[in-house]
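yo

u said u wanted the structure for the complex thing, so here. seqs first:
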Amino acid sequence: MSRAPGRDWTERVLAGPVLWVALAALTLFAIAPFVWVLLASFKTRAELYATPIVYLPASLSVANYVDAWTSKLTPFSRFFANSLWVSSVTMVATTAVSILAGYALARFRFAGRHTFLLVFLATQMFPAVLLIAPLLSQWHALGLIDTYQALIYSNFSFTVPFTVWMLVGYFESIPRELEESAMLDGCTNFGALCRIILPLAAPGVAATAIFAFVASWSELLFAITFTSRAEMRTLSAGLLFMVGQYEIQWGQLSAGVIISTVPVAILFTYLQRHLIQGLSAGAVKG
Amino acid sequence: MAREATIVAPAARPLLSRRARERLTGYCYLIPVVLALGGTVLFPILKAMQMSLYHNVLIKPQEYGYVGLANYVRLVHDETFWLSLWNSVLWVFGSVVFQFVGGFAAALLLHHPFRGRTIVRTITLLPWIIPGVVVALIWEFIYQPNYGLLNDVLSRIGWMSERVAWLANPDLAMPAVIVANIWRGVPFFAIMLLAGLQSIPTELYEAARVDGASVGQRFWFITLPMLKPIIVVATATRIVWTFNYADLIFVMTSGGPANATQITSTYTLLQAYSNLDFGYAATLSVALLLIMLGFTVFYLRVTRGLEGTS
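structre next:
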C-alpha cells in the first residue's frame, strides 16, 4: 500500500512528460534531415550558399525541380523512367518466380527441399559487392552492358531469396484442404494455385511485390557498374553521377533526392503493416 | 462395377503415382528460381573463384594470365584489407548497438496509444525505406563544412567556434558515417520490436500489475524475455546486413580519408569499380564469401538455439 503511490508516480511521469519529450525528440531526429533537404530544394542559389545559413527560402520556387527534370547533363525525367521500368519488370518477374517456388516449397515434400530453403537463407546474406566483379565480366561477355536486362537480372540476386522466403511462410499458413477439395473437383494443381491460393494470399503477394519494387528502386551498385551511358542510369545512379560533377549543385541535387524519395515513401506507407507482419513472421520462424 | 474397371483402368490409371507426380510438379515450379539464382548468384560465385586465380586488370590486358594463389598471398599481406576488416568491426558494432538502443526506445514509445500515432510511426520509419544513396547525400549535405546544417547548428548554440570538415577528418569520418547509418537503421529495429511488443498478451502485464510489479520489473521480467527471439534474430540479421552494406560509405567518403572509413565491402567494390582489378576483387569476394558462410552457420546456430528454448 505504501509503495502504490510511488509506483503510480513513476508510471505517470513515464507515460506523460517523458513519453512526449522522447516522442518529440524521435520525430525530430527522423524528420529534420528530410525537412532540411526539402527546404534546400526550394532555395535559390544565393540562399543555398549564404552565410550564416538561410533556413527558409523566400519563395517556394520550383526552379530546381524543373532544372533537374529537364537537365541535359543529368536528365531526371529519363532516370525516373529508367528506375520505373527496371523496378517494375523486376517486381513482376520476381513475384512470378517466387510464387511458384514458394508454393512448391510450402506444399510439396521432395528431396532437396531443406537444402533449397537453406540456400535461400544463405543467399540473403550475400553482399552485392561480392557479385560485382563476376557479374560485370558475365554481362560483358553476353553483351548486356548498358541494357535494362543486366540490371533486372542482377536485381534477382537480392529480391528473389527474400521474397521466396516470405511467400513460403504465407502459403504455409493457408490450409491445405482448400486446394485438395478443388483438385478433387477436377482442378489441376496449377489451377488450384491460381484460383484458390493466390486470392487468399493476395495481401502477402502484394507486400512481396512492393518489397521487390522498393529494393530495386534503391539499388545503386549494380546500376553504376553495369551501365556507362547517361541515358541508361537509374535514379540512384543518376544522383551519384551528379555528385561526380565538378561542382555539386545542391539545389538540383536536393530536388533529385526528393523526386527519388516520394514514390517509395508512398508505397511504404501502404506496405507498412504487411511488411511488419511478414518480417516478424519470417523472423520468428528463423 | 468389375466390368467398368476392366474397361476404364488402362486409360485412367495415371502414368505416375500421386507422390511422383507431386515431386515432379514441385521440381517444375522450381525451374524458374533455379535459373534466376543460378545465373545471378551461383554461377557468378563459381566464376569469382575462378577469376581469383588470374591476374586480370581490365586496363592492362597484356598482363592477363593464370597466377595460382598469388592473389591470396597478396590478400594476406595487404594491410588495407586487415585495416578494412577492423573498420568493418567498428562500423558494425557502432551502428548496430545504437540502432538497437534507439530502435528499442522508439518501439516502446510507438507502442503507446496516442493521437496521431500512425503519422508519427510512418515518419519515424521513413529513413529505412528510402534509397541508400539518398541517405548518403542527405547526410553529406548536413556535414558539408561551409553551408551544412550541423556546423551551423553547433555554432549557433555555441558548442563550436571553428567549422569542422566532418567527412574529411580521419578521426571524425568514421563516427560521422556511423551516425548516418544509425539514422537509417533505427527504424528497422523499431519496426521489428514493435511487431514483437504487439504480440505480447496484455494479460501478462495486468497480472504483474496486480501482483505489484513496478514498471522496471515488468519490463525486465515480461517484455525482455518475451522479445528475446525477435531481438536475437533482428540483431543477427542486422549485423550481417551492416557488414555487407557498402552504399553509404561508398557515396559519402569512398572509404577515405586515408582509408579511415574503408570497410571490407567498400574495399571489394573499389577494387572492381575504380581499380578495375577483377582478379583481386574476385579474391576479396571469395574472402567475403567465407566470412558470410561463417555468419550463416552462426545465424543458424543462434536461431536453432531459440527453437530449443521456446
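Chain B has a mean pLDDT of 85. The first strand of chain B starts at residue 54 and ends at 55.
cya
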